[in-house]
Design brief:
Strand content: over 45%
Number of strands: 11
Largest sheet: 7 strands, mixed
Shape: globular
Length: 123
């Protein structure tokens, strides 16, 4: 069970931090990812981190602005979003799967999903 929080309304150039808290599973040993669905578009992954910690990937448009991180003590994964742009407006959610060696950006590889949280960036 994943619970997402931290969305909201922010001006362009601002920052938000999304949280994905787990219950019933321990993120240690899980690959995790953040995805978003912009209005009228398909879901896309924006950041993902492999269970081993050896691989972290970002979608090109968020590189240098978004950071995925974990706090194992709090069993929580974060998405720090800086220098937000209006095109970042979307519903964001997190996903997790134990282990996994396949593509971190393939939704079929995940079996735990959090609910979405709205992020709105105004100009």
């Amino acid at each position: 069970h994943l619970v997402v929080s931290g969305g909201g309304l922010v001006q362009a150039g601002g920052s938000l931090r999304l949280s994905c808290a787990a219950s019933g599973l321990t993120f240690s040993g899980y690959s995790v990812a953040w995805s978003r669905q912009r209005p009228g578009q398909e879901r896309e992954f924006v950041a993902a981190n492999r269970w081993s910690g050896l691989n972290t990937y970002y979608e090109d448009s968020v590189k240098g602005r978004f950071t995925i991180s974990r706090d194992n003590a709090k069993n929580t994964v974060y998405l720090q979003m800086n220098n937000l742009k209006t095109e970042d407006t979307a519903v964001y959610c997190c996903a997790a799967v134990r282990g996994m060696v396949g593509s971190l950006f393939d939704p079929l590889n995940y079996n735990y999903w959090g609910q979405g949280t709205q992020v709105t960036v105004s100009s």
